[in-house]
Amino acid sequence: MSAVAERSMGPPRTMPGRRAGRARTWGQVGRYAVVLVALAFFLFPIYWVVVTAFKLPAEFMRNPPVWFPANPSLLQFQTVMELRGSTALRNSLIIATSATVLSLVVGSLAAYALARFRTGGPNLGFWLLSQRMMPPVVLVIPMFLLFREIGWIDTHHGLIVLYAVLNLPYVIWMLKSYIDAIPIEVEESAMVDGSSRLRVLWGITLPLTMPGIIATATFAFIFSWTEFLFAVVLTRNNTFTLPVTISGYFGSQGSAYGQAASLAVVATAPLFLLGLLVQRHFVRGLTLGAVRG
Predict the structure, then answer these.
(1) Could you tell me which of 225, 268, 273, 264 has the C-alpha nearest to residue 76?
(2) Which CATH superfamily groups domain 75-289?
(3) Fewest CB atoms within 10 Å of the CB: 22, 189, 226, 285?
């Protein structure tokens, strides 16, 4: 009877399993397709700027468009660096680097005071961070009037101080979270051995938070490097930064697409190299700041 029953049941049913497998496969294909479309959407502007930087002037407005120049040329790079590009690059390097260093020095001291001494109460950190929520356009006119009064218009130190102040709320907030992640017993044991509070800060606490400092410095540098609004209002010909100089190639009398694209590549290259150099420390720094939640 059992043999007859087994024969009557027939082969095992595998169609639902096959359908589920095909559904999962098509689902994965759909997800990959969406990712590829999104990737192409976000990367195409970067590709177009890079390709335009290597085109000849006759290829800019050609119809159909030139997707890749037959004879890539460095003419646009040479032209833009001989005109204003080299000065703008030097100004951006000086201003962004100095503002980042200044904000880190001041911000590390303030963050340590907030983390260890609870200076200003529990809500001071939130109040500092809330200052970055104010739209920058609200500060443009007051900053212009102040800078004109003290003679800081079109100066390096004017933008350095301004960018450092704008970076401070974020720097303090980030560094405080990294310092909070370090057990205070480490500092107490060093002070028992005779170390001063300042020596503990510079010799123990900050080295332990170095990945977090690198992550914070990266964000601060990117802000100072790419800031446009204050730079275009508070600078003249002597201290134009890269974003302001790039915008100058577009106007009502015409646009220099090749020079703007080549200078955009020059402006992006340092950020790309910075990301490659600090990516390992950057990821560790972000993870360190999230440990305490």
Answers:
(1) 264
(2) MetI-like (1.10.3720.10)
(3) 22
pLDDT at 291: 46
The answer to whether the CB of 206 falls within 8 A of the CB of 213 is yes
- What lies within 8 Å, CB to CB, of 11 at 6+ separation is none
Tokens of 252: 């009502």
Joined tokens for residue 164:
């450092």
Which stretches does DSSP call E strand in the chain?
Answer: 250-251, 254-255
Whether residue 131 contacts residue 165, with contact meaning beta carbons closer than 8 Å, is answered with: no
The residue among 95, 137, 121 whose CA lies nearest residue 226 is: 95
The Cα 115–Cα 184 span in angstroms is 10
pLDDT of 238 reads 85
**DSSP letter string, 19-75:** HHHHHHHHHHHHHHHHHHHHHHHHHHHHHHHHHHHTS-GGGTT-SS--SS-SS---H
Please state, as a whole number, how many other Cβ atoms lie within 10 Å of the Cβ of residue 136. 13
DSSP annotation of 59: G
Residue boundaries of the structural domains of the chain: 2-53, 75-289
Residues of the chain with pLDDT under 70: 1-23, 252, 282, 284-293
Residue whose entry in the numeric block shows the structure tokens 């590009």: 85
Q: Which two tokens stand for residue 60?
A: 């800019």
Residue 33's SS3 state is: helix
Q: Residues 261, 52: contact at Cβ < 8 Å?
A: yes
Q: What's the confidence (pLDDT) of residue 17?
A: 60
What confidence score (pLDDT) does residue 1 get? 46
The residues that bridge with 250 in the sheet, in sequence order, are 255
